[in-house]
Design brief:
By secondary structure, this protein is α+β, with helices and mostly antiparallel strands. Helix content is about 35%, strand content about 25%. A three-stranded antiparallel β-sheet has the order 1-2-4. The relative contact order is 0.11.
């Protein structure tokens, strides 16, 4: 009888240790090479993955994500798209600012969704799209939530014109300062 009880306890212990191993946290493998981000997660913490992405992409990360577990392979792809897909459905608002040297956003701001529509920021600046602008697409795919559409630089003629205007203003200011002031 004692032998049977010992075997049962051993079987339970082995089952528990196998279950514990299966549920053990595994750090994700995050790579950012040639502008492509890949996240390979096998029971990894979301907060740890976001930290790894921030380090790999030299990205400033503002806000917090929870310790929910992530499974699966995300990417390879453009960092903003992989980050968006990784956080999709997790209840977060994303704001990605700029592009760093490896193609990742320079800054990522994460906030929790609170249920209603998010009011516009009082400090937000509206940018008017050119009249002939078409919706920006990424490799034939529409941009997803939180994605950043990079606007092309202004044409060289416009840049030269602005530079000339600025130089003229500076010259006028210098001329005004160099004129002798008449006593009143």
């Amino acid at each position: 009888m004692k032998l049977k009880a010992a075997r049962e306890r051993a079987a339970k212990t082995n089952t528990r240790s196998a279950t514990d191993k299966a549920n053990a946290e595994m750090p994700a493998k995050v790579t950012l090479e040639n502008g492509l981000l890949t996240v390979d997660a096998k029971n990894s913490k979301l907060c740890q993955i976001m930290g790894q992405i921030a380090v790999a992409g030299s990205m400033s990360l503002e806000g917090e994500v929870d310790n929910s577990r992530v499974y699966g392979v995300y990417g390879p792809g453009v960092p903003s798209a992989v980050i968006t897909r990784l956080l999709e459905g997790a209840g977060y608002n994303l704001l990605m600012v700029g592009v760093g040297p490896e193609g990742a956003p320079r800054e990522l701001v994460i906030t929790r969704k609170t249920g209603g529509a998010t009011p516009p920021s009082p400090t937000a600046v509206a940018v008017a799209a050119p009249e002939n602008a078409e919706p920006t697409e990424n490799d034939g795919e529409p941009l997803g939530p939180g994605a950043i559409a990079n606007t092309p630089p202004p044409p060289p003629e416009e840049t030269d014109m602005r530079r000339k205007q600025m130089l003229n203003r500076l010259q006028q200011m210098q001329d005004q300062q160099s004129q002798p002031q008449l006593p009143k």
